[in-house]
Write a structure and sequence with these properties.
Order of helices and strands: HHHEEHHHHH
Number of helices: 8
Number of domains: 1
Number of strands: 2
Shape: elongated
Radius of gyration: 19 Å
Strand content: 5-15%
Strand order of the largest sheet: 1-2
Helix content: 55-70%
Oligomer: single chain
CATH superfamily: Winged helix-like DNA-binding domain superfamily/Winged helix DNA-binding domain
Length: 157
């Protein structure tokens, strides 16, 4: 199974916000740190804010933060919500289905079951589990804070 670019961006975005929960983060800093196009990122930010995963604040001191606590965000739900009704294969789509085997194909049921099992396996994983105590991830997602903290520690020592 291949995850869409949109879902990949959504998870990176949520991880960045969770890692920087003490402040509002900006689209440009997320784009730079997570290597994401600002245009793609803007679309995902809009979708996640509509779904309640993000809180956005406009204006000069604007930015975004998580709309829910990290322990309340199940990754399986994020995948389902962002992937939406995207069909896994052509024959899952009501429109544009040109497969002549669709009405009798047993693989369709097996693939549907496999997709549901995949999402269910992600339901046990929360955003908190991905970020909490993940020091390597924090070094990547909090580069400014880590650099500043290291400089302050070195100056104090």
């Amino acid at each position: 199974m291949r995850i869409t670019k949109r879902t990949n961006i959504a998870v990176r975005l949520l991880m960045y916000c969770a890692a920087n929960a003490d402040r509002l983060v900006t689209k440009s800093e997320i784009a730079e740190c997570c290597n994401i196009s600002e245009n793609h990122l803007a679309q995902v930010i809009n979708q996640l804010s509509q779904l309640g995963y993000l809180h956005t604040q406009r204006g000069r001191n604007g930015g975004m933060a998580l709309g829910r606590r990290p322990e309340e965000i199940q990754i399986g739900n994020v995948f389902r919500d962002v992937e939406g009704a995207l069909p896994m294969v052509e024959c899952f789509a009501d429109a544009d289905n040109t497969c002549p085997l669709a009405s009798a194909c047993r693989l369709k049921v097996a693939l549907s079951d496999a997709a549901q099992a995949f999402y269910a396996s992600l339901d046990d994983i929360t955003l908190e589990a991905l970020v909490c105590d993940n020091h390597d991830l924090m070094r990547i997602l909090q580069p400014v804070a880590c650099a500043g903290a290291g400089a302050a520690t070195a100056a104090a020592g």
